[in-house]
Amino acid sequence: MTSVSIVERGGGPPQRRRRRGGGFSYVLPALVLLLIVFVLPVLLLLLRSVTEPELGLQNYRELVESATYGRVFLNTFLVSSVVTAITVLVGFPIAWLLVILPKRWADLLFGIIILSMWTNLLARTYAWMVLLQRTGVINKTLIGLGIIDEPLTLVNNLVGVTIGMTYIMLPFIILPLVTTMRGIEPDLLRAAALCGAGRLDAFRRVLLPLSLPGIAAGGLMTFVMSLGYFVTPSLLGGTSNMMAAELIAQLIQSLLNWGMGGAAAFALLVLTLALYALQLRLFRRTQAGRA
Amino acid sequence: MLLDFHRLGGLKWVLVGIGLFVAAFLLLPILFTVALSFGSSQWLVFPPPSWTLRWYEELFADSRWIDSTLTSLQCAVLVTILSVSLGLLASFGLVRGSFPGREAIRAMFLMPMIMPVIVVAVALYAFFLRLGLGGTLFGFVLAHTVIALPLAITSICNALERFDKSIEDAAVLCGANPWEAKLRITLPAIREGLFGAAVFAFLTSWDEVVIAIFMASPTLQTLPVHIWGTLRQDLTPVVAAASTLLLLFTLALMLVAAWFRGRTK
Fold it and tell me: A184: domain CATH number?
């Protein structure tokens, strides 16, 4: 019955509540938890990156200079970029379709997207591990159709990682895009048509620019999430083509190299936060531009 | 007329074609897993030579599957309770309070959602190792609550911002004490936000694997950790059986969510 005691301690009413200017005591329990179980551990890890094995920036120097680590970060960028590009190219028509389809069909497609998103991550990854095997269904089908003679190596390399990650990221770009595209006035496109714009013009000069905030937001989110992804790359990828998150896990769990692991984690963290800051700025600007 | 389905002409069929392809792409792995779980081939030959329930029998006969499932359930329920109650309190403070640094604190609460999970996992691994919390249920619950909290707070804050506080004030004016007014007026009004927070928190913990891998010990594992360990050894169809059961669970949850949304509207 630990749960009950925790809730009572954390959730008890603050002693005396002021009507105005207060409210801080309400935030306090959650804030304390966040500081102790999140902020402090992360800071301690970053500290180890400059104190182990000795005080100094040698871990960061090695991170920048070593070709091995460089390749890992290159792989990470490459896979994240390709996944982002594919999900944007595929996600855009799907979001478009979701906005204009008759309600019943749109609901069905929505249901399929949500179902795949909510299905256990490992279950989805398992399916791809089996499907992409040398003797798997995809290779057999391609050979059966006479498209290839030899089975393709689709797993334990970056191809497998890219397929698996695209599958997982697709809903994350479709959903924000749908929100953006729902907000576009169909009248604007009607007006464009009345003014003599052809389909291509209407698409290029009205629909696409108005969808751009959604594309940018969804694309950046996919890219950032891909950068730090761990599960799919380690199950579908090979040992020779590591990505950043696997590197961090390996440095710490197998090699017990806390200094290097901390430095790599910090690099990933800074990159992620910088991209989020960029996204916030982009969003503010497009919103200001519209107002 | 690019936003009118019936006037799209030929383009309509291009979009529908892409839609069908993506729907197939999203459904294929899920249906495939279900089929494999009933297939008799240990080597995952597809289509299976014959059908069997053998993998489900193996699953239920293995105490490690059962134990890890129970651990996961326990952990997810505790995380749900903890993050909804902490999240509710924090949301009241964030939405209605006016203390200095409110916006900064609100942004900070979202940090665990933005951070790469691997960084959180590794940092907590080191921290809990030192405190002796690694491999304990308490450690699992604490770690998962931290990453579930941003979702709970977002969901409850949204609901609370939509709620008109003057209704609560009216109840107080009519003689209700402030806590009674909150309990009987405000909480029912934001129940959709609370329900969303509970579902998100539950799923976050239930599905979480990266932190759990670092937190687990040989004696205490969550279900995702057990699946992970099994997958690293071989691709046994027992995992397909477990995946199918998880899928049923997800479907049930989706139906409950749809029913709840239908009822509140």
Answer: 1.10.3720.10
pLDDT digits (tens, 9 = 90+) for A204-225: 888 888 898 889 888 998 999 9
Q: How far apart are the first and last CA of chain B?
A: 32
Provide CATH 1.10.3720.10 ranges for chain B: 56-264
Query: What's the total number of domains in chain A?
Result: 1
B3 and chain A: CB distance < 8 Å anywhere? Answer: yes
Write down the residue that tokens 């940092």 correspond to.
B123
What kind of fold does domain B56-264 have according to CATH? MetI-like fold (1.10.3720)
- The domain in which residue A63 lies consists of 58-290
Can you tell me the ipTM of this complex? Answer: 0.86
**Between residues 60 and 119 of chain B, which touch chain A (CB distance below 8 Å)?**
77-78, 81-82, 85-90, 92-94, 96-99, 102, 105, 108-109, 111-112, 114-119
Range name among A141-150, B208-217, B251-260 with the lowest pLDDT average: B251-260
Task: Calculate ∠ Cα B223-B225-B227, nearest 5°.
Answer: 70
Tell me if A31 is assigned to some domain.
Answer: no
Assessment of whether the complete model's pTM goes beyond 0.80: yes
Torsion of CA A285, A286, A288, B3, to 10 degrees: 180
Contacts of B203 in chain A (CB under 8 A): 118
Interchain contact B235–A (C-beta under 8 A)? yes
